[in-house]
Every structure is written in structure tokens, then in C-alpha cells.
Amino acid sequence: MPRRGNVYVIDDDQAMRDSLDFLLGSADFEVRLFESALDFLNEVTMLPFGCIVSDVRMPGMNGMDLLKQLKNDRTRLPVVIMTGHGDVPLAVEAMKLGAIDFIEKPFEDDRLIGMIETALKQAGDEAKSEAVSQDIVARIQSLSPRERQVMDGLIAGMSNKVIAREFDISPRTIEVYRANVMTKMQAGSLSELVRMAMRGGVIRD
Prior knowledge:
CATH superfamily of the largest domain: Response regulator
GO biological process, one term: phosphorelay signal transduction system
Domain Response regulatory: 6-120
Strand order of the largest sheet: 2-1-3-4-5
Strand content: 5-15%
Distance between the termini: 41 Å
Largest sheet: 5 strands, parallel
Shape: elongated
GO molecular function: DNA binding
Domain HTH luxR-type: 136-201
Number of helices: 9
Number of strands: 5
Mean pLDDT: 89
Keywords: DNA-binding, Phosphoprotein, Transcription, Transcription regulation, Two-component regulatory system
Order of helices and strands: EHEHEHEHEHHHHH
């Protein structure tokens, strides 16, 4: 298991690929090399989580086209774009398309390594956060229609009696539904339920 994670280098220049393979391998990354963006896309679904380091100017599918394709496919791998001198406007456009950062050639080894470490950490944290949000959404979807109505009433600040009156149900029955909601949502308190509702998109900012 690599200590620092996986890096996927995409560059049509073999000398650059070999150089980055040596640099990043020495820095304890697990490195895979790709001669073209298409070669990478053909394998991306089978690759473990990692950081993409791609040149921006390549024959065939260039770095910008790669970013567009990754965005369309909802691929959540972080991307660092390598640019030649004078390609800064292109690099800024790349960041608008989802690249985490860009670096101009020639670059300092430590700067690229630092960028990759940051990209992996940020993307890893986002992935964990996204997984939590998806889990909360699944819990919300597990509620019955009546339980969902009760939850909506609770997060709106309504008391059991008011919710009971709203749906013409006895307060005792509402208490049962409320207990079911808290159990299914795995919420230990009303404030926690509200936070989950916000995270799950029930309450919009």
C-alpha cells in the first residue's frame, strides 16, 4: 500500500513521463504512466482513487478535452494540469473545468509533490463528505410517507400536538412515528435531525 497514494501521469512526451515516474516513485507514490488521454480514459473505471497529472497540450485529446470528459463522466479524481510557458490563460480555464491546480514547466520537484499531496487530501476529504451525505439521503428515503411528514413537521419546529392536529392523528401515534424517524435517521437529538435534514437537502440554504 503506497504511503502517499496513486498518481496517474498523462503526457505524450516519453522523456517527461520517465522523469515524473522516477521523481514521484522516489517520493513514495504509486505511479502509472499514460501516453494519451484516451489511453487513460480506457482504464479509468478500473483504477483506484488517485491524482491525475496531465499535460495540457497533447495530440488527439488534449488536457482540456480530458477535463471535459471527466466532468461529463462525474469522475471524482483530482487533476493537476501541467502547462508550458505562456499557457496561464489556458490553465485558468482548466481550473474552471475542474482541475484542482496547475503548474508551469519547468517546475520545482517539491512544488509538484506538494500539489499532489494537497490534491489527494482535499479530494479524499470531499469523497468522505459526499459518502456521508449519500448515506443521509438513503436514510431519508427509507422513511415511510407518514414518517417523512412527521420529520418535516419536527424540523419545521412543530410540536407533537401541532403535527397531530395537522394530520388528524393522535399525539400518541405521532410519538411512535417520531421515535421511528429518530431511529431510522440515527439521530440522537432534534438538533442532529435538523443538521441531517440540511445535509440531505431537505432544508435548503
